[in-house]
Design brief:
The chain is α/β, with parallel strands linked by helices. The protein contains 7 helices and 7 strands; from the N terminus they run αββαββααβαββαα. The chain has one domain: CBS-domain (Roll), CATH 3.10.580.10.
């Protein structure tokens, strides 16, 4: 059985919820990613901040990314998946919640990676990709 750990991009890193969005953008550039998981003071997942969030909800809204924190943009219940979850469980989680990036957590509740659309494209059949696209972009 193929698991989340098999298809994820390893080495994802947290950004603290107290960190500013300009720093988040710098980390995204350094790591060539479009999203960062956000952690609270207990290193628990409290959300994800994306490059689009920074542009739309901060800069375009007239706010200063040097003063707005990653935690300020986190909304709703953060979604994640266990590293041992099956690919079917990964797809179900992403499709039901219409999300394009999914943090992967190990048994100790530590962030071990992220699953993105690119990871899915490398690992899934054309039929699975088609179904994913149909559900997430519908």
């Amino acid at each position: 059985m193929t698991t989340a750990a098999d298809i994820m991009s390893p080495g994802a890193q947290w950004i603290p919820d107290t960190e500013t969005l300009d720093r988040a953008a710098q980390l995204m550039r350094e790591h060539d990613v479009g999203a960062l998981p956000v952690s609270d003071e207990n290193e628990r997942l409290c959300g994800i901040v994306t490059d689009r969030d920074i542009v739309v909800h901060c800069i375009a809204a007239g706010h200063d990314p040097a003063r707005v924190t990653a935690g300020d943009l986190c909304r709703g219940t953060p979604r994640w998946i266990s590293s041992s979850a099956s690919v079917e469980e990964v797809l179900q989680e992403m499709e039901i919640h219409q999300i394009r990036r999914l943090p992967v957590i190990d048994g100790d509740k530590r962030l071990v990676g992220m699953i993105s659309e690119a990871d899915l494209a490398r690992s899934l059949t054309d039929d699975q990709i088609g179904e994913f696209v149909e559900h997430v972009y519908a």
